[in-house]
Amino acid sequence: MQFELSADQEALRDAATSLLDARSAPEAVRNVVDNGGGWDRSLWGELVEQGWAAVVVPEDLGGLGLGWVEGAVLMEAVGAHVAPVPILGQLVALDAVARAGETDWLERLLAGDAIAAVTHRPLPASGSTVPVPYLLSADVLVAPTDAGRLVLVDLEGAEVEALPAMDLTRELGRLDVDSLTRVDLGGPDAIEAFLDAGAVAVSAELLGAAARCLDDTVAYARDRVQFGRPIGSFQAVKHRCADMLVDVEGMRSTTWWAAWCLAAQDPERSVAASTAKIWTSDAADRVLNSALQVHGGIGFTWECDVHLYLKRVQLDRGWFGSATEHQDRLAGMLRQRVESGEPVI
User: Fold this and answer.
1) What is the number of domains present in the chain?
2) φ, ψ at 25 (rounded to 5°)
3) Paired residues of 151 in beta bridges
4) Residue 180 contacts by C-beta under 8 Å, 6 or more apart in sequence?
5) 33 assigned to some structural domain
6) Calpha distance 134→143 (Å, rounded)
7) Which residues, listed in sequence order, are joined to residue 162 by a DSSP beta bridge?
8) Residue 31 and residue 16: Cα distance in Å, rounded?
9) In the chain, N or C: fewer CB atoms in 10 Å?
10) Does the residue 205 lie in any domain?
11) Beta bridge partners of 118
12) Are 193 and 99 in contact (CB under 8 A)?
């Protein structure tokens, strides 16, 4: 059995990393933040031009016909660079739209001419949504409803309320859903697939952020000298970094298992997606906390890059379900197996 990325997937990872090294270096991200936050439309155009939005869409619908392993490759690179672009929501929305065969919006979303916002929180029949990333710039919102349907909401003419966000590389907004046009994308099965895709995408982004912070923290521990020695030589710092590595490798294992299950339409895909989100949500928090501790006083300053990742992680931990929510979901799935006499493992 092959547990490594294929040559083509490695080439995709290298190309994505090279592009974001050049276009989403810390200085570029800080420039977005210092200019009021939001997202980088120039970078977005370049990603769309290179086909990022089309990765999970079948070829017969105008996509690249790859899948969620390749989608996770891209999202890991996005997380490692805290790239200020709405690619996560676009991938998840396009996956749902393509599954439903909703062609009216498909071409515009693939071309990047329309922006999609996504949330796993059910939309009420009337009233306001929860805060949703990129809703201020979105043309459509894809979300489940409290009636058990997955819908695409046309946001033309909608008045979106801007909300303060910890992560200034992402807009945050909410809106009143009354009188907005909804396109039905399916029932419970569509919602389940939507939640699985979102959980995998966010898990991959969390993995990228945590892995990058681990690398930066180890490099800092080698260079920072205290009491005449690099701080990385002190046992307490070694233990911190070792724990970070264990967490990151656990994140990597669960995320790639989930991405493969999704791509292969494996029966375990929902179990795998929830397992990945449980682990990555909690592990990323531990990794970032340790990164702050190892960086010491400078880790709490604006000049240190750690805060960019910390803020991204805090939003991602709850997006498409917190660890607690996915523990409940996983428990429900396993309970059904036990009650029906099926094996849990």
Assistant:
1) 1
2) -65, 160
3) 143, 184
4) 153, 154, 155, 158
5) no
6) 14
7) 173
8) 21
9) N
10) yes
11) 142
12) yes
172: in domain: no
Helix and strand numbers, DSSP H then E, in the chain: 11, 9
CA angle 142, 310, 5 (to 5 degrees): 70
- Counted residue by residue, the chain has a size of 345
Whether residue 106 is contained in a domain is answered as: no
User: Domain span at residue 297?
Assistant: 190-338
How many of the other CB atoms lie within 10 Å of CB of 177?
A: 21
Nearest to 116 by CA among 53, 24, 179: 53
Residue whose structure tokens are 């033309």: 156
Task: Check which CATH number belongs to the domain holding 286 and give it.
Answer: 1.20.140.10
Task: Tell which wins on pLDDT, 3 or 100.
Answer: 100
Q: Which residues pair with 183 in a beta bridge?
A: 152
How far is CA 316 from each of CA 82, 199, 205, 282, rounded to the nearest angstrom? 11, 10, 8, 11
Phi, psi angles (nearest 5°) of residue 82:
35, 50
Q: Is the pLDDT of residue 344 over 90?
A: no
Q: Which residues pair with 186 in a beta bridge?
A: 150
pLDDT category at 2 given cuts 50, 70, 90 is low
